[in-house]
Amino acid sequence: PIYITFLFLCVFLPLWDVSSFGNLTLIHEQIFFFFLTNSSLPISPISLLIKGAGGWSPLVSNKYQWLQIDLGERMEITSVATQGGYGSSNWVTSYLLMFSDSGRNWKQYRQEDSIWGFAGNANADSVVYCRLQPSIKARFLRFIPLEWNPKGRIGMRIEVFGCAYRSEVVDLDGKSSLLYRFDQKSLSPIKDIISLKFKTTQSYGVLLHWEGLNGDHITLELRRGKLYFLINSGDAKLASSHAPTSLTLGSLLDDQHWHSVLIQRLGRQVNLTVDEHKHHFHAQGEFGYLHLDYEISFGGIPAPGKSVSFPHKNFHGCLENLYYNGVDIIDLVDTVVLYLEPSPGNVSFSCSQPQSVPVTFLSPRSYLALPGASREDEVSATFQFRTWNKAGLLLFSELQLVSGGLLLFLNDGKLKLNLYRPGKLPSDITAGVGLNDGQWHSVSLFAKRNYLSVTVDGQVASAAPSMGPEHIYSGGSYYFGGCPDNSVASKCRSPLSGFQGCMRLISISHKVVDLISVQQGSLGNFSDLQIDSCGITDRCLPNYCEHGGECSQSWDTFHCNCANTGYSGATCHNSIYEQSCEAYKHRGNTSGFYYIDSDGSGPLEPFLLYCNMTETAWTIIQHNGSDITRVRNTNPENPYAGSFKYVASLEQLQATINHAEYCEQELTYYCRKSRLVNEKDGTPLSWWVGRTNETQTYWGGSLPDLQKCACGLEGNCIDSQYSCNCDADRNEWTNDTGFLSYKEHLPVTKIVITDTHRPHSEAAYKLGPLLCRGDRLFWNSASFNTEASYLHFPTFHGELSADVSFFFKTTASSGVFLENLGITDYIRIELRSPAVVTFSFDVGNGPSEISVQSPTHFNDNQWHHVRVERNIKEASVQVDQLSPRRQPAPADGHVLLQLNSQLFVGRWSLFLVLYLISESFWVCLFFFASFLIILQKLSTMTFKEFSLT
């Protein structure tokens, strides 16, 4: 390819309000001065505009063509538009969009953190707009066609929409920092807002440090390319319960691209946002505010006498738009305000450009072939690499005059150097460990007579002299990352697949390789590379492994280790435990201890309880107060309060109770001259508290709001004047006992007693375990008796992961079980034919479907169980005990399922009885006349109740 750069041209590019693609509103016009650069022939910039008479269409259509725009300065770009070549059969159907500040070190724009391709045009005339969320702040844009009309060539007309971008930068050299001292009167110890952007090639460096005299401090630091945030409120010498709060966010932040940071602190409540990833947490400490000095250091810790408890390096890179509580810090230092003190070192107000050119090996078929001086009596090469893959060829160098070669490759995350010669034992060197951690690692290879060594990150490993080559002469070619598919013309051989990752700073025989010349076609040869860009991404950020699953990754995908989590599946979504004792009973289990996962695939952890499998399956949940507890010497001013701690959290208990058909808990109050109610004014003297944290004055066997006991409800109290036995206030032991069964108030969490201060006055109490039976999910059915029968519910919410399961029986040959639509996305589960159940869906990557075919028919009027799951890793369908069918999701496709219509159940011509359960969305249906109660559990795992007619 040939670079063509035009002179400055002045054109009008409209700035649009792109809040709605269907209604673009022109706000104003602004003059942009820009260069046009492309990979082939000169073109008129004006003809490139949407609806212009022309367009860009290179003579050769391949994936190495691109069209580049230079806007003259950094702009905020909010959307782009594409169109095919004017009056032609040339258009692009999909493309990459890349951006850069300097025309070097390009970065792909990704949607939803994963989508790398943009939809293009279906013809030459229609205009396709793409809104950029978030927007791009850059000077250069590059459009790289991926696919085009197979009956034509690449053809594009483009337009860019956006506005001016305000940027103030400071460049710190790793020895300098900024110390901001502010007016003490302006200090607010309760609230702070700090925002900044940074870019760097270094994986370590302090961005911000602020400390006080008593150990309070805030530190923001890069460590291994991640942001480490440390905050401490309170005396650092206090017990470990007041230890500093630390948090790690972000990944691969040493990529020489801008990353945004926002710190919002209100007391000990902190919001930390890095790029698009936000985390809220509560800082530890004794106080609700920080005692900090009246100065903040940016870029390092320059102040003498400041003691820090961690190793640190100064930040080496650029800071942009640095604000503290609305104060523009960079503007202060640029205008030489007296109370901003730069430390020793170089500080400049323009951002230095990258010195190295990275290259991305996109696939196992990628390779970079470079020439080298042949027949030299030594072989040397150096480079840096980063990858997630455990294995792959890094370098092959053929040898002259003797058969054989040098192989440098990764195996199980370790670097291995192999010298092989036919008829001789290979010489092997192993160095490094865990080199597939995504960090940059430096490698140096050196071989000469009787000497063979490899250096990894400064650590030298060499072979014994007896294992070194007797003679060695360099070959004429070096193959980085892999071998050509047709390697007949070369000697390149590798027992492993190609390398996938990034390389930079490649040198051969102590000479740095000019990778831009490689890109221009004047040096070496390559395949499936992306030059001047490192395309590595962290697929474990955010972590899509649910329920504490451990995320690991390769270049193409991520994996979840669900061991010891209690969950299974590609993303640890599915609980391996049942939701109730009733469910265990239906599996044929007998009485015993079982783990219950009360919300299925929701966020609550499983917990252990006892299931008593009598004719009814009883769930028994114990607590720490099952023994009789005696109480004396209490009065309203000095009450007794007994609390109960259960084997499960209140959230787990609430889910279990809501799941059950019936729950009860026996509460016994023993009394001798200890009343429950003051007979004079009706003031309660003892009461209990349930999960709603409200005072309850009714007792076992009674009903809410009656302030009675069981005997008062049944009319058999020992003194008919009172509603409770204990209110008779007799000098002898009696009791009020019974079961509390109003589920909304269970379980009992606390009991309060105040009337044991009189002579001979005494009380005692005993609370039994929480007992529940039944499962509201079992055998609630709905019948669809006509072709027009259906049910509808609120929109299904399962953006990242969701599963639906149900039982059905029917005599119909086809029909839809359920369907939910979005603008383009949808899900549908249907009986496609008597023996086929199909799950079809679209999350933005195009329609997909998975079918399970049975050797027997499903329309046999017998119950059949269907389970469907979709997550960002895969989709699956299982019917009864047939083998599940799975379909992997695209590695770089849309991940969010976005629906907006109602969920329809039983649509189309299906005559069936349907029992529907979903652990991310479940409904229990029962009919009484025309009344329908629907319980819906949304993806947030909250419960709502609706009534429909």
Uncertain runs are 1-34, 41-46, 236-242, 908-949
Enter the CATH topology name of the largest domain: Jelly Rolls
How much is the average pLDDT? 83
Dominant shape:
globular
Q: Classify the beta-strand content into a percent band.
A: 35-45%
Structural class designation: mainly beta
State Rg. 35 Å
Distance between the termini: 68 Å
Helix content: under 10%
Number of helices: 5
CATH top level assignment of the largest domain: Mainly Beta
The description of the largest β-sheet is: 9 strands, antiparallel
> What's the architecture of the largest domain, going by CATH?
Sandwich
Number of structurally distinct domains: 6
Number of strands: 70
Kindly report the oligomeric state of this protein: single chain
Task: Provide a concise account of the structure shown.
The chain is mainly beta and 949 residues long. Helices cover 3% and strands 43% of the residues. Strands 1, 2, 3, 4, 5, 6, 7, 8 and 9 form a nine-stranded antiparallel β-sheet that branches. Strands 10, 12, 17, 18, 19, 21, 22 and 24 form an eight-stranded antiparallel β-sheet that branches.
Account of the protein in words:
The protein is mainly β and 949 residues long. The chain folds into six domains: 4-164, Galactose-binding domain-like (Jelly Rolls, Sandwich), CATH 2.60.120.260; 169-348, Jelly Rolls (Sandwich); 359-531, Jelly Rolls (Sandwich), CATH 2.60.120.200; 539-571, Laminin (Ribbon); 621-773, Sandwich (Jelly Rolls), CATH 2.60.120; 782-948, Jelly Rolls. The radius of gyration is 35 Å and the shape is globular. InterPro entries: ConA-like_dom_sf, EGF, FA58C, Fibrinogen-like_C, Fibrinogen_a/b/g_C_dom, Galactose-bd-like_sf, Laminin_G, Neurexin-related_CASP. Residues 169-351, 357-534, 780-949 form the Laminin G domain.
